[in-house]
Amino acid sequence: MNENDTVMIEIRKEQAEDRDAIHQLNTIAFDNGPEAALVDKLRISCKDYLSFVAVEDGSVIGHILFTPANMDDNSVDGMGLAPMAVLPSHQGEGIGSRLVRYGLDYLRETGCPFVIVLGHPDYYPRFGFELASKYQIHSQWEGVPDDAFMIAVFDREVLPKHGGVARYRDEFDEAM
C-alpha cells in the first residue's frame, strides 16, 4: 500500500445504507461470531451509539462501534469500544488504527470522559489505552485478563476515586 491509497479511504459516520455491508463485514471478520448480530441489536436498542465506517471506492471495508458504558455506581458515563472490524483482505493496512483514532478523537472532542475496551494488549495502548486496573477499574465479566481490559481516560476528575466496575451495555453479556 502506498501513501496515495490511504487518501482514497474515507472515515465517516455510519449511514442507513451501510447497515447490510456492516453486518456482512462483521460476519466475515469475526468468522460468523456473534458480533454482527450484536451490532444489529445495539443499533435497535441503543439510541446513543456511535458507528463509524471506513469506505473505499463506495464499499465499507472497516467498522467501529462505540456504545454507552458506565461505572457500577452509575456515577459517570463513558463509552465502550466494541466491536471493531476490517475486511480480512484489508487488514494490516492501518484501517483499524484510523478507525480507532477517528472514534477516540470524536469522543474526546464531544466531552466523553473515558472509553473502555476489552482487546489485545499489544494493539490498543498505541491509542492511549492503559490498564483499567491502574485506576482500580475492572471489567464486569469474571476471568477477563487484567492486561486485556483497558481504558482511555479523557477526564480523570470524573472517574470514581476508589475505582469500580466498568460496564458495557447488557446486550454484550449474550456475546461473551
Radius of gyration: 16 Å
CATH topology grouping: Aminopeptidase
Order of helices and strands: HEHHEEEHEEEEEH
Shape: globular
| Total beta strand runs | 9
N-to-C span: 35 Å
What share of residues are in beta strands? 25-35%
Roughly what percent helix? 25-40%
Low-confidence stretches: 1-7
Work out the helix count: 5
* Secondary-structure arrangement, i.e. CATH architecture: 3-Layer(aba) Sandwich
Whole-number mean pLDDT: 93
Specify the structural class. alpha+beta
**Total of domains:** 1
Q: Which class in CATH terms?
A: Alpha Beta
GO molecular function: acyltransferase activity, transferring groups other than amino-acyl groups
Pfam families: Acetyltransf_1 (PF00583)
Protein name: N-acetyltransferase
Domain N-acetyltransferase: 9-147
Keyword list:
globular, N-acetyltransferase, Acyl_CoA_acyltransferase
How would you characterize this protein structure?
This is N-acetyltransferase. It comes from Candidatus Thiodiazotropha lotti. With 176 residues, the chain is an alpha+beta fold. The protein is 27% helix and 31% strand. It has a single domain, classed as Aminopeptidase (3-Layer(aba) Sandwich), CATH 3.40.630.30. The chain has helices at residues 3-7, 19-29, 35-45, 95-109, 171-175; strands at residues 9-13, 50-56, 59-71, 77-86, 114-118, 130-131, 137-139, 149-153, 164-167. Strands 1, 2, 3, 4, 5, 6, 7, 8 and 9 form a nine-stranded mixed β-sheet that branches. It is globular, with a radius of gyration of 16 Å. The model is unreliable at 1-7 (pLDDT under 50).
